[in-house]
Structures are given as C-alpha cells and as structure tokens.
Design a protein that fits this description.
Blueprint (H helix, E strand, L loop, with lengths): L1 E7 L2 H9 L11 E5 L17 H19 L8 E7 L9 H14 L13 E5 L4 E7 L13 H15 L18 H10 L5 H13 L5 H10 L3 E6 L5 E7 L13 E2 H4 L5 H9 L19 H20 L4 H21 L2 H17 L12 H13 L6 H27 L3 H34 L3 H17 L8 H16 L4 H11 L8 H12 L52
Antiparallel strand pairs: 1-3, 2-4, 3-5, 4-5, 6-7, 7-8
Helix pairs in contact: 1-2, 3-4, 6-7, 6-11, 10-11, 10-13, 10-14, 11-12, 11-13, 11-14, 12-15, 14-15, 14-19, 15-17, 16-17, 16-18, 17-18, 17-19, 18-19
C-alpha cells in the first residue's frame, strides 16, 4: 500500500479533478467512502433530480473550506492536504468500508483528524477506481489552529505497513528516508504529453550519476554534464566559490517559457555539490591499469579496462562480506559508479539491461550507514578507466571481457543484497537483487558469442586431452563441494580453458582449486560459466579464444604440481597478503 502526499491551495480545483473523467477517462463511479462527520454532500452519488452535480460540488467545497475562511490570514497558504493511497498489484479489492477505515487510520496517524478529537480537520475520502482512494483534508482545526504535520509522510508510510499486515495485503518494503524523490504526477503527465520515455527528473538524475563516474575534479564533472547536452547553472558565493548547481534539459520549459531547473540535492540526497565534492576528494588515481595488465598491448583499451575492473570488483565483494560498515558502504558507492561507467560505454546489445541495473543499484548505494574513512580510489579508478577507454564493440576480446566483468558484478550485487539484508535495509536489498537480475540478463547477452567459441574450441580438442581434463573436473568439483555436471555440452568451455591454461604453463588441477576457493559458488546461475571466467582471469588468458594469450613473465610461471597455487603475481583477483593476517585481504571462501 503506497501513500503519496501533496499540498495545494485550491480545494475546488482538486475536487473537480477527482470527480471528473480523469486525464485518460480512467475515473469511474467517483463517490465518497468517508468524511469527517459521515454526512458530507457527495457529488458522485447525489441523485436528487432538482440538484445539479456542480451545485453539490460547490456545497462540498464550502463545507471543507469553512474553517479556512474563518481562520482568515492565520490559515496556511497551502491549506489543502491531498493523499492518494493505492494497493499493490495483485492485492484483493477492498470494500468502501475498508477504504474508509484506511483513510481514518492515516488521518489519525498524521495528526490531521485524531480519533475522538472533535476539533480535528475536515476531510473526505473519494474513490474513483478499484485500487486506490484520494484523501482530501483542509488544514485548519475546529479551534482554528493549524495541525502539527511533522513527518506526515513517514507516519503515513508506517501506518500503511501496519494496515498491510492487518488486512493481509502485500507487504511492501519500509523506506528509510534515503531514497531519491519520485517524479510527481504533473511531471509524469508532462513526459507523456511531450513523448519522453521518462520524466526530466529521472533523465537528469541518470546523467549526473554518469558524469560523476570516475570524474577526477569538480571541473571535469561540470564539463561532462555540459558534454552530455545538459544546461548547467552554477551558484557562486561572493568569494567566487561554487555553492551549488542546477541542471535542466534543453527544451524543457514551464508555462512561462523558462527552463525547468532542478537542484542536484532535489534529484537525490547524494547529488548535492557538497556530497559530490566529498566523493571527488577520494578521487581516482591517474593510473587506471594495474601492473600485471601492462603487457597486454595486443588487447583493446576497453578490454584492458574491463579486465582491470573485474579484479577490483572482486575485492569489493570481499569487503561487502565483512562487518566494517563504513568501508562496505563506501564500496557500494564505488560499485554504483562502476555500473554507471559500464552502462554508458557498453555495446548496444547489453546497454539497456546494464543501464537498468545501474538505475536499480543506485538505490542500494544510499542508506543511513555513513561511508566514512574508506578508500574507494580503486573502484573510482576502474570506472574512470572504463570511461576513458571509450565504447566497447562487443566483439572478440571486448565482448569476452564485458561478459567477464558482468559475471563478477552479479556476484557483487548479490553480496550487496546480503549486506543490506543483514542490516534491515529492505529497499536497498531489493534494489540490489533487481540489479543482479538485470546483470544476469546482460551477461547472457554478452556471453553468447565468446562462450560459443569456447565450446567449439573444447569440442575440437583431441579426445585424449578432453578425457584428461574431464577427469580433473570429476575429481576436483565433488571434492570441493561443487556440483559436477558431466554433460559434455556443459563442460566444453571449462575443458577448453583448462587446456589453454596448461599450454601456458599452469597446473590445471591447482588452478581449478584456486578458482573454486576464491569465492562461494552457491549464488552462481551457471557454475561452469563462473569458473571459466575466474580461470581465464587468474591465468591472464584472453577472454575470447581467438585472441592471443598473454604469456607469464619470466620467474612467475607456477610449479606444475597439484599442491602449488598460481603465484600471486599471476592472480590479480586475490589481494596481496600482508604480514599480519587481515580477513579483508584473504581470498574468501564460504
């Protein structure tokens, strides 16, 4: 059950809308389901032959506004309190009596018309559809004082959660006041009228997030906004320092022909200039490519940037599995930037789902856990590297490394969902799971071509070589508690990867055990795919079998024994181990 609260100054205008046909003829059988005294005139059900419905509407307006007129100048300028309450899709249909109860409980919870208070504000509840009502109240009490409306939205939300439980309705996730502001009805109708797929508020919010992703300075951030086609207006102090900023879409104007400006802080709580500055002070390092990837000059810049980001994202998942709230909260912000960078530079085939994942995960980056004293330079550097590398073509090594990174980001978003769930952040956990679902779809789109090539490569191996590596899989996977799938069509890509790693000097069994021990596989949709990408990342194999492999540098080739692990220099996904054991730096294993 979702309440939506607004304030206005025209009682009659609102009633005309509620009892009218609606903007798309969606209003049917408009009538009262409740009122302050139970005897308010009802323009929708007053069937007296000698009364015009317009007259009844005027009488209802006069009755609601009676105390407002009596209070005179003491009445608030916006004296009309309007709350629409809607049940969730799939909920049962409530009766008029039940909707009356819902209205009275919300008015009591918000202190507008407390139970048993004869001086409560006058109100009505209008129903013109099966799934929602509109509550209208005038904000002057019987003693001509104004009601105290502190946190009326939060109180209405809390009461709706209780109503859902008691009336056996769908239980929605409770908010915590950190969500971005939803578009208003007027903004939605304007978007429909002008043919925009979304409101200006939503378009601007996404454009600002993408401009922040990996930005090194405030000047770069504003430059990116202008390059994205936005109108930008910076507010300056007398000293010349920037105090804040407003953005507008070209062509988005109000009735007077002026641009419709939005302050960053009104688009989302973390998009104000002071909060963006805090993020920029923990800016990205200039070098976005790690030392182990320098020799991969035969790979395209987008491929190298994505491979670098994959290792860094893996480390973020490690931190999310630990209890350091400030560190983990900061990692979520960095992961959000990484998703925004990936969405704006990925090929068209995956861009839609990646953009949807970034929009969903945006909610998961904000909670009441403050991201203090945490270093996100690695994630911001990875995001910057992806943006600077430009768009990926989606073919060859580009397509393979995109699939590799997206596969890892599925893991990260699921780790974020667990982190939020453990702290009672219901909306953020749900948003993380939504992002994971979009990423899984994007992965299937990105991985189709490289995985097909790997399958073909595996089937083309000599029979003796295939049997050897399949025997390794049958031995290692059950020993490590991983389901072994013996179907050849399922393990062809994994066999091909082990064969290629062996050619590069790696012990296939030791390498496979290391890949399994890196992280849990319980949440993997396809264990074989996850292991393929882990193996290819650890061994620095090309993400696409048609690309030339990277040969291990002198002195780094691992010993060919089943008990030795690949050297740390050849395993960028595992953080370096310090002298003192730090649980956040060890390769995790469930």
């Amino acid at each position: 059950m979702v309440p939506d609260i607004g304030r206005g100054s025209r009682t009659h205008g609102l009633l005309v809308y509620l009892y009218g046909p609606g903007r798309r003829e969606e209003h049917t059988d408009a009538h009262l389901v409740g009122s302050w005294d139970g005897f308010a005139p009802d323009p929708g059900r007053d069937t007296s032959p000698d009364l015009d419905p317009k007259v009844t509407l005027a009488r209802l307006t006069a009755a609601l506004d009676l105390r407002v007129k009596q209070a005179g100048d003491r009445a608030p300028a916006k004296h009309v309190w309007h709350c629409s309450v809607r049940t969730a899709p799939g909920d049962r249909r409530l009766s008029d009596e039940e909707w009356n109860t819902v209205a009275q409980r919300i008015l009591h919870a918000t202190n507008i018309a407390p139970d048993g208070d004869p001086d409560g504000c006058r109100w009505i509840a209008v129903r013109h559809a099966e799934d929602h009502i509109h509550i209208v109240a005038t904000l002057v009490r019987g003693d001509l004082r104004n009601p105290r409306l502190n946190y009326d939205f939060n109180k209405a939300q809390a009461e709706c959660r209780r109503i859902e439980k008691e009336m056996s309705l769908r239980r929605l996730n409770a908010g915590d006041g950190t969500a971005a502001k939803n578009p208003t009805s007027a903004e939605k109708f304007k978007a429909e009228r002008t043919g925009r797929p979304e409101t200006s508020r939503e378009t601007l919010r996404e454009a600002i997030r993408q401009a922040i992703a990996g930005a090194a300075t405030e000047e770069e951030f504003f430059t990116r906004l202008r390059e994205a086609g936005l109108r930008v207006k910076v507010r300056h102090a007398p000293s010349g320092d920037a105090l804040g900023y407003n953005v507008a879409l070209p062509g988005d104007r109000n009735r007077h022909g002026d641009p419709v400006w939005y302050p960053g802080s009104k688009l989302a709580p973390d998009l104000s200039l002071p909060k963006i500055r805090l993020r920029l002070t923990n800016g990205p390092t200039e070098r976005a490519t790690p030392p182990e990837a320098v020799s991969t000059a035969n790979w395209s810049p987008p491929a190298r940037a994505r491979r670098n980001a994959t290792s860094i994202a893996e480390r973020a998942a490690v931190l999310l599995d630990h209890d350091d709230n400030g560190e983990a909260a900061a990692q979520l912000v960095g992961v959000g930037e990484l998703l925004d960078a990936l969405a704006q530079t990925s090929p068209a085939a995956t861009r839609t789902e990646l953009a949807a994942a970034a929009r969903s995960f945006e909610r998961a980056t904000r909670s009441h856990v403050r991201a203090e004293h945490a270093d996100t330079r690695a994630l911001r550097s990875a995001a910057r590297g992806i943006v600077q590398a430009g768009g990926a073509l989606g073919r060859g090594e580009d397509g393979g490394t995109t699939a590799m990174l997206v596969s890892t980001l599925v893991l990260v978003t699921l780790a974020a969902a667990r982190w939020h769930s453990a702290r009672g952040h219901a909306q953020q956990a749900h948003a993380s799971r939504q992002a994971a679902a979009h990423l899984r779809t994007a992965y299937r789109q990105a991985a189709t071509t490289p995985m097909r090539a790997l399958h073909d490569h595996g089937r083309a191996l000599p029979e003796a070589q295939r049997r050897m590596h399949e025997a390794t899989l049958r031995t290692v996977l059950p020993e490590c508690g991983v389901r072994a799938d013996g179907m050849p069509t399922k393990t062809d890509a994994l066999v091909a990867t082990l064969a290629q790693a062996q050619l590069e000097g790696y012990d296939p069994e030791a390498l496979l055990r290391q890949a399994i021990n890196m992280r849990e596989l319980d949440t993997a949709e396809d264990v074989n795919d996850v292991l393929v990408w882990r193996l290819r990342r650890i061994a620095q194999l090309p993400a696409h079998p048609g690309a030339a492999p990277r040969r291990p540098q002198a002195g780094t080739r691992p010993a060919k024994t089943s008990t030795n692990r690949t050297s740390e220099r050849n395993a960028p996904a595992a953080a370096a181990r310090p002298a003192v054991s730090d649980p956040r730096s060890r390769p995790p294993r469930r």
